[in-house]
Design a protein that fits this description.
The complex is a heterodimer of chains A (194) and B (209). Chain A is mostly helical and 194 residues long. Helix content of chain A is 74%, strand content 0%. Chain A is built from ten helices and no strands. The termini of chain A are close together. The relative contact order of chain A is 0.21. Chain B has a domain at 15-145. Classes of the chains: A mainly alpha (194), B mainly alpha (209). Chain A binds chain B through residues 18-25, 28, 70-74, 76-78, 81, 110-113, 115-117, 120-121, 124, 164-166, 168-174, 176-178, 180-181, 184, and chain B through 26-30, 33-34, 74, 77-78, 81-82, 84-85, 88-89, 103-104, 107-108, 110-113, 116, 179, 182-188, 190-192, 194-196, 198-199.
Amino acid sequence: MSIIAIIIGGVLVNNFIFMQYLGICPFIGVSQNLETAMGMSGAVVFVMTIASAVTAAFEQFVLARFGLEYLRTIAYILVIAAFVQLVEIFMKKTLPGLYKALGIYLPLITTNCAVLGVTMLNVRQGYGILMSTINGFAGALGWSLAIIIFAGIRERWQLMDIPPALEGFPLALISTGLMSLAFLGFVGLFKGLF
Amino acid sequence: MKESKSSLGFDFIKGFIQENPTFALAIGMCPTLAVTTSVVNGFWMGIAVLFVLTFANVFVSLLRNFIPDEIRIPIFVILIATPVVIVELVMKAYLPAIYEVLGIFVPLIVVNCIIIARAEAFAYRNPVMNSLMDGLGIGAAFTVNLMIVGGIREFLGTGQIVFGSAAFPSVPFFEPAAVMLTPPGGFITLGILMALFNVTIGAKGKTND
């Protein structure tokens, strides 16, 4: 039951973009068209899920065991950066097809605050390794849902006459705000279901 | 390595106009949206970023001749993470209430693109004093931006602005809209502010260049 709650919560109720403001920069930066949005989504789902598992294991076996929790921030960012680098090298050698599709997005992911954000949220929620992994996966799915919907909307802008002052970021933020307003409707979902 | 010869005063002031992190460059969006439900939260988040940015800028600049080009990004990340841990521990000890409200956005300063962007684009190529002024200027501008967004959202959302012991009392006949404190209010406020910046200050900055 709690697993279903985490997944629904991650995708809809606590959507990373619309409710938690995590990963806004790449959300606006790479959502110009559907294809790049999907590529980025694939990379984010992959990295966020595994980064959640790796940092949760690191927390349990290293930080908690030796009482080093105060070094969490610095330890996590190094673990994530090293992991992303490793994935890039590994993918290049063994999965050239996947590397071609996701490769250019991988270096961008280290600075995606959703990745570090989800690992921090996992710790604050007290999730174990399995729950952290599920939460990371659900959060990434929610992020992907948001960016894919948004890329679809942005593709339509090309046909529209937009006032120069609103072009680019301002209109992107206002559209995100309106979508976020729609997602606010999911907030009551949990009270009704569980 | 190119050493620019811009004046210290310019390095400080440019953060407010041409290189305004929020409105002109549109970076560091997550904290700008997440913590700006009140002026006070915006202020403390801004101060935290100001400290980390200045610290990181000074050390990147001091070490710029010793950092090998190929591994500069991991080194920047460590130079940024160190002051973030300092801020975290100090805030936890002396401002526990604010630390609780800002939540994960304090450790997330590590991945704030403003800081790594300044390290890469400015501090890595400029002398220490210029980098110090750049850090202070961009940090101060960021703080002001957060306080503006926070002030607008707090006023429209609660009907008053509270800063320390001073509070601007609520205006009669004004019905606060709680939606301004929720995520949609944040996105829309920032979007409109950015559009206003584009047509006023931003447009002027461009013609002066």
